[in-house]
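Q: I'm a student working through a structural biology exercise. My instructor gave each of us a protein and asked us to get a predicted structure, then write a short paragraph describing it. Mine is Formamidopyrimidine-DNA glycosylase. I'm not confident about reading structure output yet, so if you can add a plain explanation after the tokens, that would really help. Here is the sequence I was given:
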Amino acid sequence: MPELPEVETIVRTLEKSLLNETVNHVELMYEPLLETDSMYPMEILEGKKFVGFHRRGKYLCFEFSDGYYWIIHLRMEGKFHLYGTHHRLTKHTHLLMQTEHHEIHYLDTRKFSRMAVTKDPDSYFMRKKLGFEPWDTHLTSSYLYEAIHKSTRAIKLILLDQSIITGIGNIYADEILFDTQIHPLTKGNKITKKQCELIINSTRNTLENAIAAGGTTIRSYTSALNVTGRFQITLKAYGQEGEPCSRCETPMVRIVVGGRSTVFCPKCQKVKR
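A: Happy to help. First, here is the predicted structure for Formamidopyrimidine-DNA glycosylase. I'll explain a few features afterward.
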């Protein structure tokens, strides 16, 4: 699933090509992609101009003239392909959008992604109960400590909870916990305020580095111009089961936490009882 760095990369890529272009034609071939509470049909964007490109957590948010916003959650396999000329549709192309100079194809092999068109993105995201962005000044060690200090959930699951910090997924949760030397099964009520500060700093640094590398390509992720990310070559935890720890050379161990594959170093990341 594309996480914050991958979504940010897609937003920046599309902005470079599509800013100020006008939509001439929209065709949604798989209707269930459009959420039932979408305020408008996709066709309302015909004749509208791309005027802004934003991200909220793992959501892409495209701003159009006349106050319209197109919001997309890529889920597992959603992706954009951008072409300069007419290009044939594939069986996984579920939306076609044409501008003066580009053809935008939206593909999703598993059809899990969802989208909506609205004039009130704040209300839309409020309904999704998203937490603070990693760089929000309100995301402090005091905030995080207060949010989790009574919780008996594993810290790995807390990091995946989009209502606390939005944008972190399985890949970067493993990387953050490895960086801070916190065992993924450590309960929230065992995390100290100092560790909360370490988690926030590591979250920001890890995601910034991933964005700079164009995201992490695992399986099928590519940017809108079909370019793979490069952060996967620097991963220290995710997918490293059996490999020597980059700090102590102890073999990395894989467990399952809340149904999610999790890799950590049993020596550097000791569980806090």
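A: Here are two points you could use in your paragraph. Residues 193-212 form the longest helix (20 residues). The longest strand covers residues 50-56. It's a good idea to check both against the output above yourself.
Q: Great, thank you!
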